[in-house]
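chain below, 110 aa
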Amino acid sequence: VAGWPGHHEWVDTSTIAMRWMFTEWYVQGDEALTQYVLTLPSAFNAERLTRDLADLLLGQPLAPEALADAVDILLNGIPAYEWNPQAPGAVWRLRALVAHLGRLPEHLLV
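prediction:
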């Protein structure tokens, strides 16, 4: 299989910005993101949840430093042991995490 002859030609300043905006728009909807997260066995473990969502959205594991950065975005200053996807404000943290994952270079190659 030869693949698409244009390869990464679709990546330019316009399409990257549109892709980032779409990712942010996509997660700004209703509470479906929280409901989905609650179906995951890792829902109440910030690091495992971040790893699972990154694997799902990026199709590959994050490097340790990138995973740590993503966990920090999810926690937004709270201790990891206090992470609860049902807590007030958790949906905003989840949205920030998914938007961050959507801006990573790895996401552009999915």
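DSSP finds six helices and no strands in the chain. The chain has a mean pLDDT of 82.
thats it, cya
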